[in-house]
Amino acid sequence: MAQQIKIDQIKVKHYQVWPDMNEEAFKSLVEDIKSKEMVIYPLLLDEDFTVLDGHQRLKAAKLLGYTELDCYVAQPLTEEEKLELAHTSNATARSISTADKKKRARELRAEQRSYRQIAEWVGVSKSTVERWLKGVPSGTGNRVKGSDGKEYPAKKPKRHKESSTIDSEKELRTEVSALETEIATLKGKLQEASADNKRKDDEINRLTRALNTEKAANAFFRGGDNGMEIFASMVGLDETASTSEIDRAFRKARAKAHPDSGGNEWVSQRYNVGYDLFKRLYIKNGKATG
Predict the structure, then answer these.
(1) Which residues 6+ apart lie within 8 Å of 45 measured at CB?
(2) Which among 41, 87, 225, 276 could disulfide-bond with 121, CB atoms 3.0 to 4.6 Å apart, if both were Cys?
(3) Long-range Cβ contacts of 141-144 (<8 Å, 24+ apart)
(4) Percent of the chain scoring above 90 in pLDDT
(5) Would you tell me the crossing angle of helices 55-63 and 23-36 to the nearest 10 degrees?
(6) Is the pLDDT of residue 6 over 60?
(7) What pTM, to 2 d.p., does this model score?
(8) Residue 215: pLDDT above 70?
C-alpha cells in the first residue's frame, strides 16, 4: 500500500542507473503532473527511503514545490535485488534509447555480469547483448556474476543458428512495437499542437477585431468617419440605423455580454465604454436625439 513520505526524507543514491529524461520529455512530465495536480504513479523506495524507481517524478515534484509524495516502500532487499529493480522498472516504463542501453550493457559487463543478466536488466534479448558487446574488451576475467548474485565461469555458450534466428525475430518485433508506440505518441502531440494553434488563431482574430474597433474610434475622433456609423457597426446594425435603434441594440448587447448572463468580462467592459461614449455624444436628458 502506498504511503505519504516527506520529500526531504527521500534519498537519491547509485540506483539511478539510467540517464535523465531529455528536456522535452521532462517538460512534458512536469506539465502532466501540474495539470493532474498529482503524481499519478507512486515512487518505489527501499527500506531506507532511497529511490529505486521514480527519480524523474521526484525531480519534477521538487520543481513544482511538492512536500510529500505517495511511495511504495519495499521490504528489506539485498543489494542485488535493489539493482535489479532499478534497472528493470525503468527499462520497461521509460523510453530508454538504444544507445543508452548499449552503454549500460558495457558498464554491467565490466562489473563481470553475465550476458543473460544484462539482457534481463536492460530489457533486450540475450543475443542482442552478445551482438552489442562483440569485439568489445570485456575485462571480466574468467568468471561473471549471474542473476542470482553468484559467480560462474565466463564461458560463452555455443549459439545455435535456430536460436539466433528466433532471438532476432523477437528483437525485431520489440523494435517495431517501440516504433509504433513512438508514432502514436507523436500523433497525440500533433493533435495537441493543432488544438493549440486553433486557440491561438481564435485569439488573433479577437485581437484583430479589437484593433479594427480601436482604429475606427481613432478615426472618428479625428473626424475621418461618421460617428453614428461606428456605433451602429459596434452593435451589428446597418450604417443607416437611427440613434434610437442603436441605443436599443447597445442595451441588448450589454445585457448579453455581462458575465452574470454567461458573457465575457472583456467584451462587457468594451460595450460599457462604447455605450457611455454614445450616450454622451448622442443622447440628451436620457432621450435619443435622432
Answers:
(1) 5, 10, 51, 52, 71, 72, 73, 74
(2) 87
(3) 141/112, 143/112, 144/112, 144/113, 144/114
(4) 13
(5) 60
(6) yes
(7) 0.47
(8) no
